[in-house]
Write a structure and sequence with these properties.
Pfam families: Serpin
Shape: globular
Distance between the termini: 40 Å
Helix content: 25-40%
Order of helices and strands: EHEHHHEHEHEEEEEHHEEHHEEEE
Radius of gyration: 22 Å
Organism: Rousettus aegyptiacus
Structural class: alpha+beta
Number of helices: 10
Domain Serpin: 47-402
Protein name: Corticosteroid-binding globulin
InterPro entries: Serpin_CS (IPR023795), Serpin_dom (IPR023796), Serpin_fam (IPR000215), Serpin_sf (IPR036186), Serpin_sf_1 (IPR042178), Serpin_sf_2 (IPR042185)
CATH architecture of the largest domain: 2-Layer Sandwich
CATH topology of the largest domain: Antithrombin, Chain I, domain 2
Number of domains: 2
Largest sheet: 9 strands, mixed
CATH class of the largest domain: Alpha Beta
Length: 403
């Protein structure tokens, strides 16, 4: 029996910030304290995974939602047994001798709740589509529902065309029509599919002026350039930092709600150095060092979609059982031979002006003698998106070619 795991997500101009002082207004203190226990491990897992993907795919775009992957793996641990269960927690950075398993799951439950309640534009969840001949074990179903709000839908996998329509319609509804035709084919007709999704549609706190977007060059590498629509933003209160320790400069752009994004521009040829240096300390230093600057800011307008088969990747994050097909997920269904046939993470990104009013005038009127800073994101850059209150890494992105 095969279990296929997919993670699908969409980011439309979204963001977030990891900051050690952040706390949600009116949040229950016990919930805040509980999810803080998970924050260091979750952040380390996110940055390690991003670093590995960037290093293994030089010259290519990278786009993942670490919090989505973490939650899916933590939920799978509820049905894992033996060595597979230990590997799952190890990959997520948790030591079960130091933190009880129940406390980990409760922490993810609180993260899910805080993410959902702190931002109306965020939707995330988990759904199992299982063959009509299968039935989830009550223990797994109850715990997965309690901690991860798992839904379970019976599906006729003997009729793959019908099953595909059912799953695609479900994903389409959950992502407000943005993700369609996600499932096109299946390797085996006898499968249980886990869909993990996160959808975030944010609004810039200070939107770009749609009327200022112009075609400009983007330098993919020393010999390749492409033409992209370049958004232009003039503002006298942009958070900016030029790092003297690392070869980069960056801006921080806020969104309506509880999210913020770091746009990091490495010096030419130094992207690998920056990605390798990413850590909680680095991000905290950047957050603490931001200054308010007057700036002309240019960022490409683009759409991006990336998919990853994590079976090979999981070997490098302590999940060797999946690579050798020795995984034990006997706690999910009565079918004790349940195996993971696919571990696929699909991410979609759309970056645009996201203006409330078309061609709304944005920015300030300057005196002729003013000399604002100028930043052109016209070469490889990094986007880091964190939630303010849970320190969750919603999205990590390396943009090599916006087209």
């Amino acid at each position: 029996m095969l279990l296929t795991f997919y993670a699908c997500l969409l980011w439309l101009s979204c963001s977030g910030l990891w900051t050690i002082q952040a706390k949600e207004p009116n949040a229950d203190e016990s919930i805040v304290s509980n999810h803080r226990i998970l924050a260091p491990s979750n952040t380390d897992f996110a940055l390690d995974l991003f670093n590995y993907l960037v290093a293994s795919a030089p010259g290519k775009n990278v786009l993942i939602s670490p919090v989505s992957i973490s939650m899916a793996l933590a939920m799978l641990s509820l049905g894992a047994r033996g060595h597979t269960r230990a590997q799952l927690f190890q990959s997520l950075g948790f030591n079960l001798t130091q933190i009880p398993e129940a406390e980990i799951h409760q922490g993810f439950r609180n993260v899910h709740r805080l993410l959902r309640e702190s931002d109306d534009s965020l939707e995330m969840g988990n759904t199992v589509f299982l063959n009509q001949s299968l039935e989830l074990l009550e223990s797994f179903s109850a715990d997965a529902k309690r901690y991860y709000e798992l839904d379970a839908l019976a599906t006729d996998f003997q009729d793959w065309a019908g099953a595909s329509r059912q799953i695609n319609e479900y994903i389409k509804n959950k992502t407000q029509g943005e993700i369609t035709d996600f499932f096109l084919e299946l390797d085996s007709p006898d499968t249980l599919i886990l869909v993990n999704y996160i959808f975030f549609r944010g609004m810039w706190a200070q939107p770009f002026d749609q009327g200022s977007t112009r075609e400009q060059n983007f330098y993919v590498n020393e010999t390749t350039l492409v033409r992209v629509p370049m958004m232009m933003f003039q503002w006298n209160e942009i958070k900016y930092f030029k790092d003297q320790q690392l070869p980069c400069e960056l801006v921080q752009l806020d969104y309506v709600g509880n999210s913020t994004a770091f746009f990091i521009l490495p010096h030419p040829g130094e992207t690998g150095v920056i990605v390798a240096a990413l850590s909680r300390d680095t991000i905290q230093r950047w957050s603490d060092s931001m200054t308010i600057s007057e700036m002309d800011l240019y960022i490409p307008k683009f759409s991006m979609s990336e998919a990853y088969d994590f079976r090979g990747l999981l070997k490098n994050i302590s999940l060797a059982d999946l690579l050798t097909h020795q995984e034990n997920f006997s706690g999910i269904t009565q079918e004790t031979q349940l195996k993971l046939s696919k571990v696929v993470h699909k991410a979609m990104l759309q970056l645009d002006e996201n203006s409330v009013q078309a061609a709304a005038p944005t920015g300030v009127t300057r005196k002729a003698e003013s000399e604002p800073l100028t930043m052109h994101f016209n070469r490889t850059f990094i986007i880091m998106i964190f939630d303010k209150y849970t320190w969750s890494s919603l999205f990590l992105v390396k943009v090599v070619n916006p087209t």
